[in-house]
Amino acid sequence: QVQLVESGGGLVQPGGSLRLSCAVSGSFSSISTMGWYRQAPGKQRELVATFSSGGPTNYPDSVKGRFTISRDNAKNMVYLQMNNLKPEDTAVYYCKVIATRSAVSYQYWGQGTQVIVSS
Predict the structure, then answer these.
(1) Please, how many CA atoms are within 13 Å of residue 57, restricted to the half-sphere of its CB?
(2) Interatomic CA distance for residues 90 and 92, integer angstroms
């Protein structure tokens, strides 16, 4: 099994910054894709940032230039640096990975971390 644990959420004023972390643990042979999604109340879950091994980093226009995804392969960690936060960034943020176990790829989600942007 694979476990994802997010941390770093909280309350921040507009214009502020937060850094989310996602620790990936468990039994897997490789991770091909790591990403962050978010879900605001009453809305569908949406992509925030994602990258695949050997592929480009993808951001929606709503966060491009403000959010940066990064990873530490040695520690099996993925991060989301969020700058110039806006009230519309308020949501629960989820980490997702696609990991390979016994030559089969599976999708795993974390439990989410709440981000509230408010003055």
Answers:
(1) 16
(2) 7
Q: How many residues does the chain have?
A: 119
Query: For the chain, how are helix, strand and coil distributed in percent, rounded to 5?
Result: 5, 60, 40
Residues 97, 110: Cα–Cα separation, whole Å: 9
Short-list 28, 49, 32, CA closest to 94: 49
Three-state secondary structure call for residue 87: helix
List pLDDT tens digits, range 27-43.
888 888 899 999 999 99
Angle (CA) 89 5 99, round 5°:
100
Contact between residue 9 and residue 21 where contact means Cβ atoms under 8 Å apart: no
Give me the amino acid identity at 60: P
